[in-house]
UniProtKB/TrEMBL annotation:
Reactions listed under catalytic activity: uroporphyrinogen III + 4 H(+) = coproporphyrinogen III + 4 CO2
Record function comment: Catalyzes the decarboxylation of four acetate groups of uroporphyrinogen-III to yield coproporphyrinogen-III.
Residues given in the record as substrate binding sites: R28, Q29, A30, G31, R32, D78, Y155, T210, H328
Alphabetical list of Pfam families matching this protein: URO-D
Organism: Kangiella spongicola
Subunit comment: Homodimer.
An annotated GO BP: protoporphyrinogen IX biosynthetic process from glutamate
Name of this chain's protein: Uroporphyrinogen decarboxylase
First-tier enzyme category under EC: lyase
Lineage: Bacteria, Pseudomonadati, Pseudomonadota, Gammaproteobacteria, Kangiellales
SUPFAM superfamilies noted in UniProt: UROD/MetE-like
Superkingdom of this protein's organism: Bacteria
GO annotation, cellular component aspect: cytosol
Amino acid sequence: MSHPLVNDRYIKATLQQDTDRTPIWMMRQAGRYLPEYRQLRAEAGSFMDLCTNPELACEVTLQPLRRFPLDAAILFSDILTIPDAMGLGLYFTPGEGPAFKKAVRDEKTVKELPIPDPNQELKYVTDAVSTIRRELKGSVPLIGFSGSPWTLATYMVEGGPTKNFSEVKGMMYGNPKAMHLLLDKLADSIIVYLNAQVEAGAQALMIFDTWGGVLSPQAYQEFSLRYMSKIVDGLNREKDGQRIPVTLFTKGGGKWLDIMAESGCDCLGVDWTTDLSEARQRVAGKTALQGNMDPSLLYASDERIREEVETILASYGHGNGHVFNLGHGIHQFVKPEKAGVFIEAVHELSKKYHQ
Ligand code: CP3
């Protein structure tokens, strides 16, 4: 079944091997800023109707690749599939973001949560992975992903939108035993989930720690990084003789890149609040780096976008180990043409950093 990988720039860069230019993909590259996505979603019904139908999830994954010369595809799914499969009842209210019918607030509820079977409750995800992998025909690698235990726990404990994380931080400081039990169960669930994605054909993995940056340095180590490291240790890092690179991304975690680099991952995501030159010093050659243009630059002029791409490339400097990306997901109101300008600029301007 498996085609040889035609464009392996993304895999090589995450493993700090030489490439002819800097590879690029965009977080949330499949989604609402694309009219073809909005149309398919309207026909399908809801976002989860897209995620749970492997053919539709595959179609949505491929949409940005038809428009732009991207160097990687990312599985179209969501980080909240695991808590949903644990029976919490995921739903989305327009304008308010994700919520759960049932929140997790005490040790008894934590103990009762099942570890979802990736070949049962989450089979729609592994089916999507194998469908996408077949349709990509080896053109670019497919990235599988999950949320971090801490980030999933914030959604599960809060149950709905939050401004100050009072419920989840209340449990972390007030009942650390229950919180550790929850994070450990999530880490175990994520390990089997990501290994199943690799088994189904994912060629790289990424862990989104969207809310790690709201923690104190001590709490970050104890409640977020520790469990991401546990996951990295539990992952199968090779399939069919190929290394499966793992990227960790803590939004707002720029100050902690040095300790994150000790986790054993291959690459670290960086948001736009940290310069890549500083990030590169912090990781000291232990990992590659991914990032980090402010997604809001895509509202600026073409010239300004190109200027920012040049600044970021110069900040990282010469040599391998850089995957270009936005510092967080592309916004839904960005014009698709602006993404085109951004991607083209990375193609053109990055060559001289690889000579
Ligand atoms: O990057 C990609 O193209 C792959 C798909 C992907 C989605 N969500 C699709 C999606 C990925 C990797 C995610 C991860 C995700 N989901 C994260 C971590 C990354 C990040 O952005 O920090 C988080 C925190 C979530 C939880 C979540 N799911 C949120 C906050 C939302 C937005 C809700 C809203 O109403 O704005 C979602 C829904 C979601 N996930 C959409 C997409 C394309 C929008 C769904 C829609 O309305 O069509």
